[in-house]
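@channel anyone free to eyeball this complex?
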Amino acid sequence: MNIAVLSGKGGTGKTMVSVNLATVAGPSVYIDCDVEEPNGHLYLRPEDVEREAVDVLVPKSDPDKCDGCMRCVEFCRFNALAYTLDRLTVFTEMCHSCGGCKVICPKDAITEYPRTIGYVESGKSDNVKIHTGIMNIGEVAGIPIINRLLEKIPESGNVFIDCPPGSSCSVMESIKDADFCVLVSEPTVFGAHNLNMVTELVTVFGKPFGVILNKDIEGERNPSEEYCIENNLKILGRIPFDKELGLLSSEAVIAARENPKFRNLFTEIFNNIREAAL
Amino acid sequence: MKIAVPVINDSDNPEIAQQLGRAPFYMVYDTEAKTSEKIVNPAQDSPSGAGVKAAQTIVNTGSAVLLTIRCGDKAYEVLNGAGVKVMEAFVGSAMDNINAYEEGKMSELETIHSGHHGKGA
Amino acid sequence: MKQLLILSGKGGTGKTTVAGAIIRLAQVLACADCDVDAPNLHLILNHEGDGERKDYFGLPKAFIDQNACTMCGRCSEMCRFNAVDVGERTAINGFACEGCGLCEAICPENAIEMQAVAAGDLRLFKDEEKGVFSTAQLRMGNGTSGLLVTQVKNQLKNAAAHLGFAVIDGSPGIGCPVIASLSGADMVLVVTEPSMSGFSDMERILDTAKGLRADTAVCVNKADLNPKITEKIKIRCEERNVPYVGEIPYDPIAVKAVNDGLTVADVKCPAGDAVRDIFHNVMEVFDGRRRV
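replying in thread with the prediction:
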C-alpha cells in the first residue's frame, strides 16, 4: 500500500511521522519527495547508498547556424535565454526543458543536451529501504526528480511517501500514486487553516485520507481536531505533545527505535491507517 | 553614450527604483543630446526570470552604462556579457545619479545578489 | 517606509506568532503577509470583512478552441509535461501545464492560445484603527513566485505610503519568494528553532540576506526544547557577527492565546515576556532606523 504523508506547511511533524511509521511498518520503503529540503535521511541514516543523477534537457546554440533573429529569446516565457554580442546565453537553471526554442528556431541552430538538476540516493536502514530526492540549489523544477523517485515504488509492500509542504504542483506530483493520504496537523489555528487547504487538495484528487493530530496537548482546545469533527474527517491518531519526542526528533532520532512507548504509539497509528484504507 | 537607470515612474525627474528586474520603467539618458526617454519594463510581470528579461531589455536600448542600487547575478551576467558597465547608484533622483556618474563620483557595483529559483514557477 | 521582515527558513518555527506579537507591541499600522502559499497572519490580526480583492496572474496556461481542433495530436506528442490528453477531445490538464507556449506555437490549426489564469488572490484591508494589511493566497497547484510577493509589498507601499514603519511576515524557505521579500527590507529578524533542519536553514537565510545587504538578527523559538542546539545557534551567530537577540521558551499559554485569536503580547505569559525583550533588542540593534 502506498501511503503519502502531507501537511499544509512545514513544521507540523510530517517527516517525523513518516520515518517512525516506516520503522514500525517494516519491511517498508521510505521515499522523500521533499526534494528541496529532504530531511528523512537525517533520521534514517541510510547505508550502502547508491546515487543516480537526474537529468533534464537544456538547449545550446550553434553560433555558425544562428543569425541572431532572437525568436527563441522572444519565445521563452521563463526568460531563460538572452542574446548579446552575437552570442546566445542560456540560463539553464531557469529552463523548464520544454524544448520550444529548438522547435521555434528557423535555422535549426539549437540542440539539446542533458544537465543534472539533482539526485536520487538509495540505501537502507535495517528493514527500511530509502530513496531520497535531492534537488540542486537554485534549480527551478523538482518534478523530474519526484518522477524518478516514484519509479522506485515496488509492486507491493508498505511504501511511505514523504511529500513537500504546501499545495503546489510538486505536492500533486508526489501523491499521484498514493492509495491513501495521511495529513499531519498541529493544534493551532494556523494548523487548522493549513489543514483545510491540504484537505481540499487530496479531495480534488480523489484520494482517501485521514488526519493525525500531532503535538496534541491534553485538556487544551485543538483547532485541527475541531476542524476534523466539523467536517467529519477520519482521525487516525493523536500524538501527544511530548518533550522527549520533541528532543529526539530535533536530534533526528527515530523515537520508535528508542522507546517502546513510541513504538506502540506509531504501531497503533499504522494499524488505524490500514483499517481506514480498506 | 547612453546611460540606463531603473526608475519608479515616467515623470520628468523620477526617483531611482530600488529593484532592477521589477522596476516599472527604465530611463535611458543620452549624454550628448542631454535628453532622456522612459521605456516600460516588460519584465515586471514575469513570474520568473525578471532579471534576465530586464537585462536583455537594457542591452537592447544600446546603453553603455547602467546605474542601479541592486543587481541580481543573472541580470549581471547578461549585462556584463554585453559589455554594459554596472555602477552602484544611491537613493535619490535618476538625474542626481547620472550627474554623480558624469562627475566620476561613482564606483562599480560590487555586491551581486543571488536570485534563487528554488520553488517552481 | 522602513520595513522589518520576519523570516524563518524552516516552516513552523513560530515566525507568524512572533510577527503578530511585535505588531501588537509596536502598535504597527502597516503589515503584510508574504507567506502566500499558506498565509496565517490574518488569523491574528482579525481585520473585518474580506478586504479589497484582486486577481494575481502567474504564468498563462494553454486553452484549446475545440471548434478549430482537428485532434491531430501534435500538441500531445510535443508536450514535455504530459499536460495534453487526447481522448474524446483534446484536453489540457491545467495542473500539469507549465505555460511554456510550445503547443500554441506548433498547432497547425492555431487552435491553442495561452491565456492568463488567475493563480491567486491579493487582498488589501484598510481600517481606521488597525491600519493597513496586505496579503495574498496562492491557489492550489501553483508554485509560489517572487512576483506575487512583490505585488503584496507594492500593495502595502501604495496604501500606506504615509506610514513610517511596516512589519512584513516573510515566506518560508530560501527561494525566490524570500529574495523578493528581502528586497527593500531594512531589517530582518530570523526566527529559528533548535533542530538540525532549523540550524541549517538559518545558515542559508543568513547567506541570502547578506548578499542583499539586509541587516539581520536572530532569535530562537522553543529554545528549551533542545538547549544544546540552541547554544550551537548562539555560538554560530557570534561567529558570523549576527546579533543574537533572544530566546523564547516553549509556552502552552502562548499556543492557547494564538488559538483564541490573540497575540502572545496580549496575554501574560513567558513567551510574551520573551518576545517583549526580543523586540527591545531588535529596536536597539536597528536604533535610529525607525520613525515613531
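from a first look: The CA atoms of residues 106 and 273 of chain C lie 63 Å apart.
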